[in-house]
Amino acid sequence: MTARHGHRRPLSHGVEWEFDKVTFSREFPRNVVTKLLVERAEHGGWELARVRITPDGTRRVVLRRRIIRAVRTA
Fold this sequence. Notes:
Number of strands: 4
Radius of gyration: 15 Å
Number of helices: 1
Largest sheet: 4 strands, antiparallel
Distance between the termini: 46 Å
């Protein structure tokens, strides 16, 4: 499993998302990949944005989470 962190971009007005790309090799069974992704969702606030399965069986997963900016009050 490999991961790349920190990609950010706005998708719609006023909402910013942080993206994380994770790659799972074909040796990881489907239930193990599911368990790892559920753990990231529950503990890190990530949601599934995209899954691509390549011809060699590698899973390329894109996760996203909303960036919440604190607004300073007077």
